[in-house]
């Protein structure tokens, strides 16, 4: 399959999938995300680029 067709298929998948985060396995930095991740976590896309995955895994204190 040509690269352009693969990219197109991936774009469709990314648009319609649940939250997707692309994470650097060495640093835990968030490199990219889809709109579903923005909607789910409630951060603006720009803010995600300053976060690490542990920042998202932190749960609020129990009441």
Could you explain how this protein is built, in words?
Helix content is 48%, strand content 11%. With 63 residues, it is mainly alpha-helical. It has helices at 3-16, 35-41, 45-48, 53-57; strands spanning 21-23, 30-33. The longest helix is centred in the first third of the chain and has 14 residues, at 3-16. It is globular, with a radius of gyration of 14 Å. It starts with a helix and ends in a 6-residue tail after the last helix. The protein contains 4 helices and 2 strands. The model has no long low-confidence stretch (mean pLDDT 79). The protein has a two-stranded antiparallel ribbon. It has one domain: 2-Layer Sandwich (Beta-Lactamase).
Protein topology:
Blueprint: H1 3-16, E1 21-23, E2 30-33, H2 35-41, H3 45-48, H4 53-57
Antiparallel strand pairs: 1-2
List keywords for this structure.
63 residues; mainly alpha; Beta-Lactamase; two-stranded antiparallel sheet; 2 strands; globular
Strand order of the biggest β-sheet: 1-2
Q: Would you count the extended β strands for me?
A: 2
Tell me the fraction of residues in β-strands, as a range.
Answer: 5-15%
Radius of gyration: 14 Å
Structural class: mainly alpha
- The CATH level-2 architecture is identified as 2-Layer Sandwich
**Number of helical segments?**
4
Largest sheet: 2 strands, antiparallel
What best-fitting shape do the alpha-carbon axes yield? globular
Give helix and strand order, one letter per element, not per position.
Answer: HEEHHH
Low-confidence runs of at least 5 consecutive residues? none
Q: What is the CATH topology?
A: Beta-Lactamase
CATH top level label: Alpha Beta
Helix percentage range: 40-55%
Distance between the termini: 53 Å
